[in-house]
Amino acid sequence: QLRLVESGGGLVQPGGSLRLSCAASSLDNYSIAWFRQVPGKEREGVLCISSSGGTTNYADSVKGRFTISRDNVRNAVYLQMNNLKPQDTAVYYCAATYGTTVCPVPELSEYDYWGQGTQVTVSS
Question: What is the residue-averaged pLDDT of the chain?
Answer without folding.
Answer: 96
